[in-house]
Design brief:
The protein is of the alpha/beta class and about 425 residues long. Helices cover about 35% and strands about 15% of the residues. It contains 11 helices and 12 strands. β11 and β12 form a beta hairpin. The protein is globular.
């Protein structure tokens, strides 16, 4: 039976795929007949793809966030797991496949925490909690911050452009996904004026400020280093914890393993997920030991949190990063894509900006001769690209940003092919 890949909440997560015959009519009809099996609000933009339908040499996936090791519902990287992670998982299956870590500790969890403690920026003692999803990671980071400070306030930044802070009830899902989820207890800070934070709430009430080093759903906006430094100083002044949400930016996407390495300051808590385990469900929180220990015994974790299978996959991912120098490759991929996209920008003035950090790249589109966001043009580019076999998704507050996140192992020829298709699509708009 064909494996159907579901792309959850496709407005949030983009991908690029080069192929021929992306999704066959037979598969479309098969998946369409099964749509009642999941909630209608579980948005599926591309309705199904059997495993290995697309030859490897014809694929270019952008937004699976980092590398060939990831294949998840949100990355939709249509390829088998890499040999390294697959072998690690198979070996782990012969040892132990499941036991709740709080009941019986196991080696892969401990070894992975030790590695993460070294990778996360900050010259202080760290501890790491492993969970299953990025939403859980953010939720637990908030829980830890509240326990450590004795305060309840949380300040994401900012309302319309935050990432998923978060999918559960504590901090809620962002607009427009938060509708009908109940009252919103969050406070949103205008960006990038950190002084306004003190006027939103009394500092003594705020447990944490949480933000992404590069906004994801907000349009791939890198945070200015000066903003990070001033936020760090603000947090230190008032005893507020600074939480870096590296769910999208982590695991090498920006050219360093964590984007905060480039910001000149260290967060108190860091969340990570997505490609850290090559497509297996794993996420976590890493932070100062004193804060991580603030929760009462039994207050963290869960039945499947830090599964030994996912931990084994994550250890393999980190090993591949080291052996294949994927951080250097991330920078090279970003430079090649940025150069190519800026050449396209010269020919098509509706492209107002090409920006990003490392290989986390975005193209922002405006109406010709104005600074008015043009979501309609982006929609046309997405549709035209799909007909040419290139899958793109948008992001940004106004839906006028194309995001490009390719696997770090994609060959240069494949990157160039994707750029050529993007240029064709913009040319057809003229």
């Amino acid at each position: 039976m064909s494996r159907v890949f579901r792309v959850a909440e496709a407005l949030e997560y983009g991908m690029v795929g080069i192929n021929t015959g992306l999704i066959s009519n037979e598969v479309r009809h098969s998946v369409a007949s099964r749509l009642l099996a999941w909630p209608r609000r579980f948005q599926v933009r591309y309705r199904g793809l059997p495993r290995n339908q697309i030859p490897v040499h014809q694929r270019l996936i952008a937004r699976p966030r980092t590398d060939r090791l990831r294949r998840r519902h949100r990355s939709a990287e249509h390829r088998p797991p890499a040999p390294e992670s697959g072998a690690a998982v198979q070996e782990q299956l012969t040892k132990v496949s499941h036991t709740c870590f709080q009941v019986l500790a196991y080696e892969p969890y401990v070894e992975l925490c030790e590695k993460i403690n070294k990778l996360v920026p900050g010259d202080f003692d760290k501890k790491t909690l492993l969970v299953t999803t990025g939403s859980e990671a953010v939720e637990n980071a908030v829980k830890i911050a509240r326990a450590a400070t004795g305060r309840a306030g949380l300040s994401p930044s900012p309302a319309a452009t935050t990432p998923h802070h978060d999918d559960s009830g504590l901090t809620g899902k962002v607009v427009p996904y938060f509708r009908r989820h109940g009252p919103d207890a969050r406070r949103h800070l205008p960006r990038p004026v950190p002084e306004r934070a003190a006027r939103c709430q009394q500092p003594r009430d705020i447990a944490a400020i949480i933000l992404e080093p590069v906004q994801g759903e907000g349009g791939f906006l890198p945070a200015p280093k000066e903003l990070m430094k001033r936020l760090r100083a603000l947090c230190d002044q008032h005893g507020i914890l600074l939480i870096a949400d590296e769910v999208q930016t982590g695991a090498g996407r920006t050219g360093t393993f964590f984007a905060m390495e480039q910001m000149g300051v260290a967060p108190d808590l860091t969340t990570f997920a997505k490609s850290i385990a090559g497509g297996f469900p794993l996420a976590g929180v890493c932070g100062k030991a004193e804060y991580m220990d603030a929760i009462a015994p039994g207050g963290l974790g869960g039945t499947y949190a830090g599964s030994p299978i996912a931990c084994a996959a994550a250890l393999a991912v980190i090993e591949v990063f080291e052996e294949e120098k994927l951080l250097d490759r991330s920078k090279a991929v970003g430079e090649r894509l940025t150069t190519g996209l800026r050449e396209i920008q010269k020919k098509h003035p509706i492209i107002g900006d090409v920006r990003g950090l490392g290989s986390m790249i975005a193209v922002e589109v405006f109406q010709k001769g104005t600074h008015t966001p043009d979501a309609a043009a982006v929609g046309q580019v997405v549709a035209k690209a799909r007909e040419k076999g290139l899958i793109l998704l948008s992001c940004g507050t106004y839906g006028n940003v194309l995001r490009i996140l390719v696997p770090l192992t994609a060959e240069d020829a494949l990157l160039d092919k994707g750029l050529a298709i993007i240029e064709e699509c913009f040319a057809e708009l003229a």
